[in-house]
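Entry 12.
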Amino acid sequence: MPLDNKAIRQQFPALERPVLFLDNPAGTQISRQSLERINRYLLECNANHEGMFETSRRSDEILHEAHAAMADFLNASYPEEIIFGNNMTTLTLHMSRSLARNLKEGDNILVTRLDHDANIAPWMLVAEDKGCNLLWVDIDVEDGTLDLEDFSRALERKPKIAAFGYASNLLGTINPVKKLTKMAKEAGALVYIDAVQFAPHGPIDVQDIGCDFLACSSYKFFGPHAGALYGKYDLLNELKAYKVRPASDELPYKFETGTQNHEGIAGVLGALEYLEWLGRQFGEDQAQAWKEAGFSGRRLVFKQAMSAIRAHEFDLSRALIEVVESVPGTRIYGVTDMDRLDERVPTVSFTLEGREPERVADELGRQGVYVWNGHNYALAVVERLGLLEAGGMIRVGPVHYNTLEEIAHFGDVFRKVASS
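Predicted 3D structure (tokens):
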């Protein structure tokens, strides 16, 4: 069943404002269910971990449920494989430190030029500290896809860790993560995937992918500012955690250092409950295929939800690309072939000849159309495309709560800005 835009938008209080949110790749608006979870947590069970009293016990129950729900969302084997933290960047910096203990001077680490710097800089720091070598995998500058031949060549050097993204936060490119993981594992590498930009757009299955680690952030999928990291149980169990001495050695708590943002984790649970609602309301058309794949219960509902979102967003991608390409002087970086929309999320980045991206974004913002500009922390991409000195790109990123009417409105405003 197609998504009901009116019913969906009613779940997002911020959408009542008379502005157009196309800034979603940096953070979506929060769902009503997530807000309610945060409020209830703070009012009814705001307490620290493992106390011998009611509010603490209720707090721990909510935190456990959030771990379980996140495990279902990613199809992890156990709730203990989910680690919560501030965001993907902080979690990756934390985990990279633990992984670095098993590296030695001269070891190789693979990174790609398509990635957000949060999945590059931590490994650069590890390489600097441990005397390791960075192996850079290039991109095809014509369509913004990863160079698979270059990836294969890098694997010949037997990297200990292969770090790459699920989807580019700047170009929208979706990597063939299952294929890349298989190649990397066959070369003997641990695989660390940044799934921040794919999580709001499609279903994720860490068991099917076969990765060792996968990170995402709930503020990119309709929740609060919080991050979540999946890691294989045996790996997490073996790894040294950098923590204070009295803290638990049990998973996942040995990696959840200090007092966590409990209300934020409750908000993650609320965001996932929103996706459950969406899956039950609009995902029945997607159910049979996932049932045949062995899914049931909440895991099935999540797959229904994200498949319904994915199908809906093909129309948004198509409309947005057509709008941008209709404006003289624009150049989109990334996949634009309408027969290849399954290779991208609806994030579209482009330049406008003779105009600074910052000025264009500012003029759009003044007219109530919110977009991003610059390198958006995809520093390696912008450098590779030769756009850093020119101010990067203009980035427009709809999600499923956006409508075709909003894309058309963006086009009207953008044409006026471009011709002014």
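Annotation: The chain is about 45% helix and 15% strand. The mean pLDDT is 97.
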